[in-house]
Specification:
This protein has 14 helices and two strands. By secondary structure, the protein is mainly alpha-helical. The chain folds into two domains: 120 residues, no CATH class; 215 residues, no CATH class. The chain has a two-stranded antiparallel sheet with strand order 1-2.
Length: 375
């Protein structure tokens, strides 16, 4: 039994390290996600309480604010006592009451003592967004996933190169037509920094939304083709595996976009001269870097970097769509993902069998009814 317990602990550490913590049977947000974020959430809570104090409003208001802060911290102490813990203890389980208190209480101070309703509402929204971010980062192992994909960068690089070589004719055809047109240079250089980077973020968002919609189906396909044991994947397990596939795919898209960006920065510096840029642009151009090159001057300007970024973002979106729509690219991606997940499914089957031996209830397989109503 001690050997089984040690193996279970080892498999659970492996699940966390591989970015799939939801494969752990008793993994829960209350005990495994928000409790690990207690130091961060406490720091945010203290900073928000201090920020709510209006020091310039006079000593009376400051004392009221300090009293309100004491009431807030006392509320958490009372909550500890109600749950059977010491007044100043750190909770071992962060449930709904603690989360509601974290979201709502800091927003009450500016409303009660300063009448700043909008500031209090923004605080509530910020805290809600922080809890969602914490849940995504810890609950779906985003940090572990980033480390995992970082370790696999070179294998992903090889896969990206092979697909890129096959996709490069269409990518270059569309992107070259875009790059050497006056309208593209004017569109990407005329807007201010805020509008330009918002447009780039829109390209990234569209790529992520498309991948997020398509990848769950890919995961189900991989699941059907792989041995997952006698217990079907739970919904949160499928979502966690879809997150693995999403980050793996985004790594490839990022590499392809970076390669195309670098290509057009070099190409534009060599071929798009100062005179050409002046005839294309509607706003003055700023030269960032210049160098003598075989009797000529090669320049990298702000407009060139903007246009290269815009074309690379569009090419990345095109690549993200193509790799899951075009059958040739999609089959290669599915095969690569299947190879990665087979080992995870084998460890999951071993893990569930060890849990059965310990007497832990494991969901049995769902049997379909036969024609006569039997199983």
């Amino acid at each position: 039994m001690r050997d089984d317990d040690a193996r279970i602990a080892e498999l659970e550490r492996r699940f966390r390290r591989d970015g799939v913590p939801n494969l752990i049977l008793d993994f829960s947000a209350a005990e495994d996600v928000f409790t690990r974020a207690i130091p961060f959430l406490t720091l945010v809570f203290v900073l928000e309480v201090v920020n709510a104090m209006d020091i310039d409003a006079g000593w009376v208001n400051l004392l009221f604010a300090l009293g309100g802060a004491a009431i807030l911290f006392g509320a958490f102490g009372v909550l500890n006592v109600v749950r059977g813990r010491r007044f100043f203890s750190v909770p071992s389980r962060v449930g709904t009451p603690e989360l509601v208190a974290f979201v709502a209480l800091p927003g009450l101070l500016p409303v009660v003592f300063s009448g700043q309703l909008l500031f209090g509402f923004n605080t509530v929204l910020l805290n809600s967004a922080l809890l969602l971010l914490v849940y995504l980062i810890i609950g779906f192992g985003v940090v572990s996933l980033v480390r995992w994909t970082g370790r696999r960068f070179f294998s992903q690089l090889g896969a990206s190169l092979s697909v890129l070589v096959r996709a490069v004719p269409l990518l270059l055809f569309f992107s070259l037509v875009m790059f050497f047109t006056t309208e593209i240079w004017q569109v990407f250089t005329a807007p201010g920094p805020g509008a330009f980077w918002s447009a780039m973020a829109l390209f990234v968002l569209l790529a992520m939304v498309f991948l997020a919609v398509r990848l769950p189906g890919v995961v189900r396909e991989v699941q059907d083709e792989s041995a997952v044991g006698d217990v079907p994947l739970r919904r949160k397990e499928r979502l966690n595996l879809a997150a693995v596939a999403l980050i793996s795919e985004m790594l490839q898209v990022t590499f392809v976009s970076a390669a195309i960006w670098l290509f057009y920065v070099v190409l534009g510096a060599l071929l798009v001269s100062t005179a050409v840029r002046e005839s294309w642009l509607v706003t003055p151009d700023d030269v960032i870097w210049s160098i003598a090159w075989f009797g000529d001057t090669v320049q990298v300007s702000e407009s060139l970097l903007r246009v290269a970024t815009g074309v690379a973002a569009f090419a990345g979106l095109y690549y993200a769509v193509t790799i899951l729509v075009d059958s040739a690219y999609r089959d290669q991606f599915v095969d690569s993902l299947s190879e990665e997940l087979r080992g995870t499914f084998r460890r999951r089957s071993e893990y569930l069998e060890l849990q059965r031996k310990r007497g832990v209830p494991v969901t049995p397989p769902v049997m379909r009814a036969g024609p006569s109503g039997g199983t």
